[in-house]
């Protein structure tokens, strides 16, 4: 006759069974079908930084056209039109914050603050003109880290002395070549992926293009990923490209250098910045104000207004309304748009 199992024996047997299950990772025989093994989780691709994205565009087969943005709305409009990057000049920050010309009244910190707001609200990399990036290599090291941390994909900085910038070229002056090389070293040491473009303005004091090319080649060797220069003709850029051996940037969209891939390729220009369009917009607003004052209406001016469909893309109305529905909020009404 089978003897009864006492409580202690039951606990011991149960403990052995549990330890066997944990050791083998399998259920005991007769405990039911084995569970299906879960597939190994797929490794997530590493996120691509804005610096890495700008670098890929810089090394791509087509020249990069960067229209000038003024604020988040113009930046979104540039993105809506399919451009792959944009340019934000330091002049924009002087105008937007103080309504003053580009004479370095704003600080590098203010430039980074302003540009980072725009950069955080678009999905294409931003090329930012950050003046000289700081008074010393120590400042530049700090600001380069800050600019990259806040999402700026490319920083362009120049060799102009502060007094030259403050007087809009009236007082000549650029940093000694050795100092600018130290500045580039500091920025290169600080960044991880952010692209660095050194702007060479050597002809300012003595109008020597020979000195400009000598400096530009030195800046490229020091660690700049590209060099921003201004030369008289497309053929001059071709010659410069052979000397500098890094991608060239220049201002485009004018008579000397159209903002077309064909013109840029012919001149061996890799990156072109188009000036801010804020004065075009201000001209339209000025006409509207003149009409309003004269007639009490803006009927004629309104004919040039941005279309509703484009405006809703720029303001991301569909995405905002979808988010509102997700969180049980009603969509915005028409008058609010």
Task: Please describe the topology of this protein.
Blueprint: H1 7-24, H2 50-58, E1 64-68, H3 72-80, E2 86-88, H4 90-98, H5 108-119, E3 126-129, H6 137-149, E4 154-158, H7 162-166, H8 177-190, E5 195-199, H9 203-206, H10 209-222, E6 226-228, H11 234-244, E7 248-251, H12 261-266, E8 271-276, H13 278-295, H14 299-302, H15 308-314, H16 317-326
Parallel strand pairs: 1-8, 2-3, 3-4, 4-5, 5-6, 6-7, 7-8
Helix pairs in contact: 3-15, 6-8, 8-10
Mean pLDDT across the residues is 87
* Helix content range: 40-55%
Strand content: 5-15%
Give the total of beta strands. 8
- Counting DSSP H or I runs of 4 or more residues, the number of helices is 16
Distance between the termini: 88 Å
Rg over alpha carbons: 30 Å
- Give the helices and strands as they follow along the chain: HHEHEHHEHEHHEHHEHEHEHHHH
Structure description:
By secondary structure, this protein is an alpha/beta fold. Helix content is 48%, strand content 10%. The chain is built from 16 helices and eight strands. It has helices spanning 7-24, 50-58, 72-80, 90-98, 108-119, 137-149, 162-166, 177-190, 203-206, 209-222, 234-244, 261-266, 278-295, 299-302, 308-314, 317-326; strands at 64-68, 86-88, 126-129, 154-158, 195-199, 226-228, 248-251, 271-276. It has an eight-stranded parallel sheet with strand order 1-8-7-6-5-4-3-2. Strand 3, helix 6 and strand 4 form a beta-alpha-beta unit. Helix 8 packs parallel to helix 10 (209-222). The longest helix is centred in the N-terminal third of the chain and has 18 residues, at 7-24. It is globular. Residues 1-32 have low confidence and may be disordered.
């Amino acid at each position: 006759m089978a003897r009864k199992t006492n409580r202690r024996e039951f606990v011991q047997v149960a403990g052995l069974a549990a330890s066997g299950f944990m050791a083998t990772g399998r259920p005991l025989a007769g405990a039911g079908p084995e569970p299906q093994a879960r597939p190994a989780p797929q490794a997530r691709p590493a996120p691509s930084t804005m610096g890495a994205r700008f670098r890929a565009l810089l090394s791509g087969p087509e020249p990069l056209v960067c229209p000038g943005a003024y604020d988040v709305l113009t930046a979104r409009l540039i993105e809506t039109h399919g451009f792959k990057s944009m340019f934000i000049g330091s002049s924009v920050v002087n105008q937007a914050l103080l309504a003053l010309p580009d004479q370095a009244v704003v600080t590098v910190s203010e430039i980074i603050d302003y540009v980072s707001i725009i950069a955080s609200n678009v999905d294409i990399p931003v090329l930012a003109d950050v003046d000289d990036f700081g008074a010393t290599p120590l400042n530049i090291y700090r600001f380069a880290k800050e600019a990259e941390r806040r999402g700026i994909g490319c920083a362009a900085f120049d060799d102009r002395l502060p007094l030259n910038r403050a007087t809009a070229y009236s007082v000549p002056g650029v940093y000694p070549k050795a100092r600018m090389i130290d500045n580039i070293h500091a920025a290169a040491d600080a960044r991880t992926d952010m692209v660095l473009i050194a702007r060479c303005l050597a002809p300012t004091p003595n109008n020597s293009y020979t000195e400009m090319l000598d400096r530009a080649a030195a800046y490229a060797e020091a660690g700049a990923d590209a060099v921003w220069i201004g030369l008289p003709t497309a053929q001059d850029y071709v010659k410069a490209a052979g000397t500098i051996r890094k991608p060239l940037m220049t201002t485009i969209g004018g008579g000397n250098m159209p903002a077309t891939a064909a013109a840029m390729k012919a001149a061996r220009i890799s990156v072109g910045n188009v000036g801010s369009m804020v004065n075009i917009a201000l001209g339209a607003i000025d006409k509207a104000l003149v009409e309003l004052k004269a007639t009490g209406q803006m009927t004629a001016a309104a004919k040039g207004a941005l279309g509703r469909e484009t405006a809703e893309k720029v303001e991301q109305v569909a995405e905002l309304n979808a988010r509102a529905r997700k969180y049980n909020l009603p969509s915005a009404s028409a008058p609010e748009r």
